[in-house]
Known about the structure:
The complex is a heterodimer. Chain A is α/β, with parallel strands linked by helices. Chain A has helices spanning about 70-75, 85-95, 115-130, 140-155, 170-180, 190-205, 225-240, 255-260, 260-265, 275-295, 305-320, and strands at about 15-20, 35, 55-60, 100, 135, 160-165, 185, 210-215, 250, 295-300.
Amino acid sequence: MTFEIPRETNTGKIVEVTLGATAREGGTRSHTVTIGGSAALPFHFFEGNHSHRPVVAMEVFDKAHPKFPDALRDYFGEVLDKPGDMAKKCVSEYGAELISVRLEGTHPEKGNKSAEEAAEIVKQVLGSVSVPIIVTGHSHFEKINQVMKKVCEIAEGENCLINYVETDNYKTIAAACIAYNHTLVAQSPIDVNLAKQLNILLTDMDFPAERIVMDPLTGSLGYGLEYTYSIMERIRIDGLAGDKMLAFPMLVNPGYESALVKEARAEESDYPEWGSTEIRGAYWEIATAMSLLVSGAELLIMYHPKAVEAIKAKIKEMYGSRNGD
Amino acid sequence: MKKKHKVTILPFDTIIEVQPRTNLLDAINAANLPLTAVCGGEGTCGECVVQITSGRYHSKPSAALSDEIVSEGYALACQTFVEDDLTVVLPRFEELSIRSVVDHEFFDERRDLISGIYEVDPPVQKIDLQVEAPSLEDNYSDLKRIERALGKSWPSGNISCEYSVLKKMAYAVRKDHGKISIVLARLGGSRFIIDIFPQSEKKSVCGLACDIGTSTVALHLVDLSTGKFLGTASSYNQQMKCGEDIISRINYSQKPGRLEELHDLIIGTINLLIKKASESAGVPPADIYYAAISGNTTMIHLFLNLNPNYIREEPYVPTINQPPVVRSQDLGLDLNPEARVSCTPAVGSYVGGDITSGLLCTPILLDTEKVFLFLDAGTNGELVVGNKEWLMTCACSAGPAFEGSGIKCGMPASEGAIETIKIDDKGRFGYEVINNAKPKGLCGSGLVDLLAELFVHGFVDRNGKFIERTARNKIVQTENGEGLLIVEGPKSFWGNDIVITEKDIANLIRTKGAIYSACSMLLKSAGLKFHEIDSVYIAGGFGQHLDIENSVRIGLLPDIERAKFSYLGNSSLLGAYLMLLTDKNHSIVNKIADQTTYIELNTEPRYMNEFTGALFLPHTEMDLFPSVKKVFDRIR
Lengths: 325, 636
């Protein structure tokens, strides 16, 4: 008797979301990146088609976080403070498929850079690389609304992924995305219902469904990853079961999350039994990213070049010669 | 040293002495009375309004109060300085006192629901007897001859006689040549003669039904020979000054002397109401021989002077669920000293006698097959599902929003409360106010209407946030952020705008979400779906015109056939009244308490998921509310 793998069949399919725009589509990117489109759980190739592979983005900063691990400086050195150059390095040397520009320095308590300065940085990065761009903000509503409005305006037509809006602050940024043709991240705090509610609110204001990416707000390994794993899995199962308001591709931030945890940063001299900081930092991010990938993430924003390399290789290995870009 | 001024604060009757020119809000807070101002004493929010009925004071003018109101002695405590002995009324608590919890017509309507158990055979009643005169041949004692006379019309059995009755016996049996009246109490299988008097004294025998709520207390005076209402009274619970909710009351009771204080306050509250009701009915309190008391477990503990602390602490065990019958003199109630006092039985710490008493008002025990859902939507929501054969219950912390607390312009269902609201096609608000008074604020039923109307007319999104496109013209700034204008200042009693803020709406959504998700969890625990429920009985402090359609539209109640719903009002009080009528109801209510299974939601991980799902209008899963979906799709 031969063993046959039991198969789940799904009625729903994850929405396909295209990021970036080429000259033909009104932008200046050399190519676009499409995520989503899966008809089965991640890597369940035996149950359904996965039309696009998960992709790995890397992040550059308007202001590098003071707590970032030394490993990042070792790899990027001076360019850590030069977002345009760093983006170029990420793409050409480390194979970043997209670049996220994190605008934390516009937060009133973290530098209070103006919306114009932020827009200038985004422009610089758009000029230095040709991959699609993610613009990542923060939770100071009033300021980020100004910043994102400006960014949306100057990047009109580029179909950037504007990262993010939340339930208590979505209208201004969503309206700007509609007006200037960008895609949007809907972020909600690790809860299936709250995630769905925000997506309903967005579509109720006529935001196009094929331009929504969800961020379930995950944590890093050791900081509730199991919980975020099962929430993402439930979101994905519901989405595949036909719940249109949960059938969006998911974005996660294993880089940022892992870079800030003590276990990934602590000096080897303080914790000799934990081993080399450099390797540990990469492992921490890999373990986090891999779990998120398996629970349904399609777009991972990562930091450590070694981790990026490993995750990309893993995706390639899993997909093999299968379709998906 | 300057002479101090005496400030008398009503309705608490608290007197505090203060230095001249003391700020009145500070003085009231120094007396530990609950009066706050969200604006922090800036004189803008209007929350600390008081009425000063005697004495001189200096008050800075404030935009929050109209001139008309100021001329009636109303002032903002935070802007007022004491210059004399003052008498100050806190209107919010005064409102609770005149709250219309007792409406006879409404009460009578509810009787139809329960006609099966509505029969008059009170456990305490007056019995007229002809006692044979003693002779040398028949020299039985007075008591023996009374027992013999009683045995003719009442099946024999052990009868005990109170000592105080013995003292009056010789006189009573001889005064009218053996024509006597006795008051017989038959409770829990034992029989007591608790009073005796000659028939010519023609005393009536009355009963008292009382609901002790955490914030309000209401009672009915009832003629036990007919079951008719003689008088009624209600007021705020004087324990309010020791904390507004159950947990803060329990905390308060934990210092030496404070349990006594809380006990005395509730007895004092009830005695005051007894005085009011008996005066208006022309019945002396000494004619009241039986009291049925209903209330949540904590209130009953405080009423009986029992330590409630273990209700609060894990594993949440009360001293007693089914209190024994006690004598009024042991509690200090101003009734006949031998009067019997019964309390309705609790299921547990968080499902009390107010709920079992409420269940008594439903026909559940008359019908075997049909499954019902009983829902008391108070600060603590309590739910019961089941039928004659099984009952399951749970409690949820819903918050006091539907009772008017925690909502900027919320208030209890008393005079001046907007109790229904409609928005017409042109976006104009129409409303009805209790007693046709000038509107002061919104009570629970008004808030339910308002939220439903705002939602279906597109003023708020499914998250309860204002939609600028439609709401723009009605938005005003308040110290709680943006508010939607319902009644303009000049048209309101206080002279300032009646508004609803996004924060208020979030509060209402949390409350309705807690109740709906608890219903949903309870049904899941019982393996039932909403459409399998045959009747839904709703009790609580909404006011008396809760609109079922609107309750469904906001997702407070499930979207099932509207004919299945009925609104019971203060069923805790109604149940206490039924306990007066026949002892059978006492056994029924005990049976209810015994056979009810309690489900703990806090330890149920799925509850959180149900709850967040319900934090949306009407629910994250619109498919659960097909009728609302139709309305929503048509409007958008």
